[in-house]
Specification:
The chain is α/β, with parallel strands linked by helices. It has 8 helices and 6 strands, in the order ααββααβαβαββαα. A 6-stranded mixed β-sheet has the order 1-3-2-4-6-5. A hairpin with a 5-residue loop joins β5 and β6. α4 packs across α8. The longest helix is centred in the middle third of the chain and has 17 residues. The N terminus is likely disordered.
Length: about 240
C-alpha cells in the first residue's frame, strides 16, 4: 500500500502504527461543526437508545492489521457508530455489511451491535474517510480534507491490503484522490480499477437504507462484490 505524501499533513511519524492512529483519531477536534454535532447527538440521543452512553467521538478503523481487504465507507452514522464507537455497528447499514462479510468468511459473526459483542474480522479492515458523524450525513470538503491524513496513515500502515471496496461515490472519490487517479474513473457498481501498486479499487453501492430499502443494492449484489474481492486477493 502506498505511503502518504509527507506534504499531505499526515501524522507525525512517516508510518505510524495502527494503535497510534487510533489514539489520535479518537482525540481529534479539528472540525468545530462536527465536534458540536457528534456531541449534541450524544446528549439528545434517539428515544430507543436513551439509556445508553453514546461514544460521541471520532470513530477509528476496525479489523485485522494483516487485512488484504479494506472496506471504505463514508462516515460514522449519528446513531450507529457515533453511538457504539465501532464502524458500521448498531445500525441497519451495518446489519447488511456484516452479514455479507460473515458469508464471505471475513467476519466471525453476522451481526454487530456493540464494541464488546465479540465480533472479530479476519483478513479485513473497515474504515471511513471522515471519522466523525457529519451533519445531514454530508461532510464539507474541508472536513473531508481534515481527516485525509488519518486515512493516508491507515493505508500506509495496512501493508497487506490488495483490494479496496469503496462503498459509494464519496468513498470512491476519496480513494481516487488519494491514489492520484487522473482522469478520475467514473463510479459504477462492480467496476474494478487497477492501481499502480497492484491494489484493486472495487466499487460497490453504499449499504445505506436508501439503497437497500429500494432494491438498488441487494444481498446477492453485495455478496458478489465480496466474492470478487476474494478472487482479486488471490490474484494479488
Amino acid at each position: 500500500m502506498r505511503s502518504p505524501d509527507p506534504s499531505s499533513g499526515a501524522l507525525d511519524d512517516q508510518t505510524p502504527g495502527l494503535d497510534q492512529i487510533e489514539r489520535e483519531v479518537v482525540e481529534c477536534r479539528r472540525c468545530p461543526r462536527l465536534v458540536e454535532w457528534r456531541e449534541r447527538v450524544g446528549r439528545i440521543k434517539r428515544a430507543a437508545y436513551r439509556d445508553e452512553q453514546y461514544w460521541a467521538r471520532p470513530v477509528p478503523g476496525f479489523g485485522d492489521p494483516e487485512a488484504r481487504l479494506l472496506v471504505l465507507g463514508l462516515a460514522p452514522a449519528a446513531h450507529g457508530a457515533n453511538r457504539t464507537g465501532r464502524m458500521f455497528t448498531g445500525d441497519r447499514s451495518g446489519d447488511w455489511l456484516y452479514r455479507a462479510l460473515w458469508r464471505a468468511g471475513y467476519a466471525s459473526q453476522e451481526s454487530s451491535t456493540s464494541r464488546d459483542d465479540g465480533l472479530t474480522l479476519s483478513g479485513a479492515w473497515i474504515t471511513s474517510p471522515v471519522k466523525c458523524a457529519p451533519v445531514a450525513n454530508k461532510p464539507t470538503p474541508d472536513e473531508r480534507d481534515n481527516c485525509q491524513p488519518f486515512l493516508a496513515a491507515e493505508l500506509a500502515a495496512l501493508t497487506s491490503v490488495k483490494v479496496i471496496v469503496a462503498l459509494g461515490g464519496f468513498a470512491h472519490s476519496v480513494a481516487c484522490r488519494h491514489f492520484g487517479l487522473r482522469p478520475r474513473p467514473e463510479f459504477a457498481h462492480g467496476r474494478e480499477v487497477p492501481l499502480d501498486d497492484g491494489t484493486t479499487l472495487l466499487c460497490c453501492f453504499h449499504v445505506s437504507q436508501q439503497n437497500t430499502f429500494t432494491g438498488r443494492l441487494t444481498e446477492p449484489m453485495l455478496d458478489a462484490v465480496f466474492s470478487r474481492a476474494r478472487e482479486l486477493e488471490a490474484l494479488g
